[in-house]
């Protein structure tokens, strides 16, 4: 079967409108604030502007006010939105909300969709996804999950500690992964719960200091101590949390790649402009071989990243798990995007290190992506494991 990776005319038109909106409206606000959203007022202003421009919520179905793009369509539009650190927030496609919307639309009940998805898709509220735990709890190894949900009259009692919960400050609700069967280290046995902010027993703790600052709402510690929720808070089926999480994780990894690819392009554009203007040693910097090699390597990394993203998105659009393609794209993207930003900063010299342009901020933002959504090492382990497993299976069948 052939693979159709090219975007249709409607997607191209939306991407073009998004690109214009980002450059004309969003970038000036981003640059004026050093790449860090300063307040809810700016956040609301950006989203209202995106709605007015007709580019808001491209990933959500039309039923909930979006454009209903598939994964390949998202790849094109999200890349344009990601050209600014503020772009994903403006379009309501920032993590973790974008991934949560995707999952809610696919597995939530109608009542849950009206209560949580509809206001989230409209940008009226924010959310968080509470899975990661302090060591030795769940992180790269989800089977290490220690937070537990125990049945009580009319619902569930959640107890446990979470950390690095992105966007928890100000989130209206959390999707909480808790163990409902087995012990830490056992496969399976997890359930997802929708927990409203302010539920007794749920405590939002400290902001964890991190390299990156552009993910709105920070990275926080969240604790659950005798936090009781009703049966209606179960998202999906009991003990099937890991299976449902895959609905979110693969696409969310790809949308991260799409957004950061936009920043890589922005960094390259800054570097190209600088090298074309800067003169030293009797010529333009862009005419020197070492600079040309870095610019060329940036173009190669950007093109290869885009191709791997589209391949993984095509597989996801066909309804497959796409685990291998997603892992390959995630590892390559995270590392290639960092290389592009790093080279661009180097090409800009002292200006790149300074706060006069945002390359230093970009570098701090993209570096954690080699850890977020599964570290490069964890994905490489999974890639190799699948390759060997396929070989063993083929040998047994031959």
Please tell me about this protein's structure.
- This protein has 398 residues and is α+β, with helices and mostly antiparallel strands.
- The chain folds into 3 domains: 9-121, Butyryl-Coa Dehydrogenase, subunit A, domain 1; 127-235, Beta Barrel (Butyryl-CoA Dehydrogenase, subunit A, domain 2), CATH 2.40.110.10; 242-393, Butyryl-CoA Dehydrogenase, subunit A, domain 3 (Up-down Bundle).
- It is built from 12 helices and 10 strands.
- The strands form 3 sheets. Strands 1-4-5-8 form a 4-stranded mixed sheet.
- Strand 2 (148-152) and strand 3 form a beta hairpin.
- The radius of gyration is 22 Å and the shape is globular.
- Belongs to the acyl-CoA dehydrogenase family.
- Its cofactor is FAD.
- This is Acyl-CoA dehydrogenase family protein.
- Residues 239-387 form the Acyl-CoA dehydrogenase/oxidase C-terminal domain.
- Residues 128-209 form the Acyl-CoA oxidase/dehydrogenase middle domain.
């Amino acid at each position: 079967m052939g693979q159709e990776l090219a975007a249709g005319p409607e997607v191209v038109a939306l991407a073009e409108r998004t690109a214009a909106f980002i450059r004309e409206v969003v970038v000036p606000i981003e640059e004026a604030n050093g790449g860090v959203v300063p307040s809810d007022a700016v956040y609301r202003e950006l989203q209202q502007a995106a709605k007015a421009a007709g580019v808001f919520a491209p990933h959500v179905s039309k039923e909930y006010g979006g454009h209903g793009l598939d994964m390949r369509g998202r790849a094109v539009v999200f890349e344009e939105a990601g050209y600014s650190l503020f772009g994903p927030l403006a379009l309501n496609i920032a993590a973790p909300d974008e991934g949560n919307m995707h999952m809610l639309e696919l597995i939530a009940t109608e009542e849950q969709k009206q209560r949580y998805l509809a206001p989230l898709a409209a940008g009226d509220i924010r959310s968080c996804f509470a899975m990661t735990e302090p060591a030795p709890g769940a992180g790269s190894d989800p089977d290490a999950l220690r937070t537990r949900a125990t049945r009580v009259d009319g619902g569930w009692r959640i107890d446990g500690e979470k950390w690095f919960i992105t966007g928890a400050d100000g989130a209206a609700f959390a999707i909480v992964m808790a163990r409902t069967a087995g012990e830490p280290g056992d496969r399976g046995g997890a359930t997802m719960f929708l927990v409203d902010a302010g539920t007794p027993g749920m405590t939002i703790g400290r902001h964890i200091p991190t390299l990156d600052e552009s993910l709105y709402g920070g990275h926080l510690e969240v604790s659950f101590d005798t936090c009781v929720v009703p049966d209606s808070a179960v998202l999906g089926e009991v003990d099937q949390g890991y299976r449902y999480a895959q609905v979110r994780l693969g696409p969310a990894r790809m949308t991260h790649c799409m957004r950061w690819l936009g920043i890589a392009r922005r960094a390259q554009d800054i570097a190209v402009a600088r090298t074309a203007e800067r003169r030293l040693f009797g010529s333009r910097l862009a005419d020197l071989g070492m600079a040309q090699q870095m610019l060329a390597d940036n173009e190669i990394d950007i093109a290869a990243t885009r191709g791997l993203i589209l391949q993984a998105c095509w597989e996801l659009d066909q309804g497959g798990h796409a685990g291998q393609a997603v892992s390959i794209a995630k590892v390559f993207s995270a590392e290639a995007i960092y290389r592009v930003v790093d080279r661009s900063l180097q090409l800009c010299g002292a200006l790149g290190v300074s706060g006069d342009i945002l390359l230093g901020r970009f570098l701090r933002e993209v570096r954690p992506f080699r850890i977020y959504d599964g570290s490069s090492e964890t994905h490489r382990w999974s890639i190799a494991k699948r390759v060997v497993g396929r070989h063993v299976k083929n040998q047994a069948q031959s």
